[in-house]
Structure formats: C-alpha cells, structure tokens
Amino acid sequence: MNNNIHVSGHPSSRKDSLILAVLIGSLWGLSEAVLGPVIRHYAAPLRAALLTGTGMAWLGIFLALSRRPGFLFITALITMAAMHISVPVLQCSFLCKANSSLAVMLHGSALFTVITITGTQFWNRTALQALAGFGAPLLSGTLFFYSGMRLAPCAYLLSYNHGSGLSSFFMHEILLWSLFSMLLLPAGFAAGNVCRSTFVSFRQKKPALCVSGSLAAVFLCLVALVFIAVSGS
C-alpha cells in the first residue's frame, strides 16, 4: 500500500510513523480505560459517543504528525491490543472486549476510507476534516451494528435486533458518535499541527531520544493499563 496517496506536506518516514502509531494507539487505549468508567458514572448515555470522539481526536493528532493515513490501521490495532490487556492479566474471556475492539478497528478503517475519498484537500481544510469526522462513524457505526450482532452481542445491542433496529440505533448511537467526532477529529488535527514543527525538529535533531522516549511512553501506558485492569478486578 502506498501510504502517501492523497497526502500533502512531508510525511514522516515509515519507521517514525510506525513508532508514532504504536504510541498514539497506546494513548488511545489508555484513554479508553481511564475515561470509560468515569463517563459511565456521570454520563452513561453519552459514553460510546464521547469515547468515539476521543478516539477520533487521537487519530487526528496522529494524522497531523505523520501525514500517513495508511498507518491508521496500525494505530487502531494497537488500541485494540491495549484494550485486551485484561485478557492475559485477569484470565478473562477475549469476548469481553470483542465489540469494543471491533468498533475501534472499524473507526480506523472508516476514517481511512473517508480520507481517501476526500483527497488532498483534507489536509488543508477544516471543513473537510469535520466532514470526515462526521462521515467515518456513519460508516463504521452501520458496519458495527451488523457485525457486532454476530460477534458478541450484548443485551443492549440485542435490544435493537428488530425490523427498525438500525434506524433506532442510528438515532440513539451513531448520530451522536458522528456529532462528537465531527468536533473532535478537527480539534485533534489542529492540536497535532501546532506540535508538528516541534515534533519534526526534535525527531531530526535527537532521533535516538525521540525513539527511546516514545517507547518509554508506550511502556508506561502498558503499566498503567495493567494497574487499571488489576484495580478494577
């Protein structure tokens, strides 16, 4: 796959993009673990929408820093792995996080698809970034509705298993996912753009420190995820 398709500016190297994807994916997974219980306690109906929007913000940061949309798959895959840290730690079933992981992978894949469709203008126009943030969850949410029903359907998802289930799920869930993502994807991209020149300069001047620092941050995320998993058991 040519990850430079539809990309303006100067993409980072494949090695740097891979390390960045692992770092952002780890941070995304950690944010899911930290924010999930808090949102469930204070704003349970908005939990999926807020977590989707937060994930899109992380993807926006990654896109601004790397300019390589093809690596979105790796970012989502690392997030999925981070979300499953409880499986080996607590010896629980893989299926307990199956639908959450499925949603993460679909969000990453859908965003890549939408960016490919929007073309090079995505990188320079906030309106197109907002459109991508709105459109990606529409696609991923629809795919999630059908595939989640078959993978590991929970009681909540099964409550939509009727003739007009998709339209009801759209109004209660997918539309909210899209609205939050429409705001947070461009916000994440803008934040990444602010840091990009500093990030590129630091990477060029001190590449070894940049790599080691990123890997150290990934390790700390892993330790935090294990601690959260054990504490919540």
Please give a structural write-up.
There is one protein chain. With 233 residues, the protein is an all-alpha fold. It has one domain. The protein is 79% helix and 0% strand. The protein has 9 helices and no strands. The N terminus is likely disordered.
Give the SSE layout.
Blueprint: H1 14-42, H2 47-66, H3 72-83, H4 86-90, H5 98-118, H6 126-151, H7 155-158, H8 165-205, H9 207-232
Helix pairs in contact: 1-2, 1-3, 1-9, 2-8, 3-5, 5-6, 6-8, 8-9
* Helical amount: over 70%
> Could you list the spans in which at least 5 consecutive residues all have pLDDT below 50?
1-7
Q: Please outline the major beta sheet.
A: none
Helix and strand run: HHHHHHHHH
Number of helices: 9
The total strand number stands at 0
Using the alpha-carbon principal axes, give the shape: globular
How many domains, as an integer? 1
Strand content of the residues, in percent? under 5%
List keywords for this structure.
233 residues, globular, mainly alpha, 9 helices, 79% helix, disordered N terminus
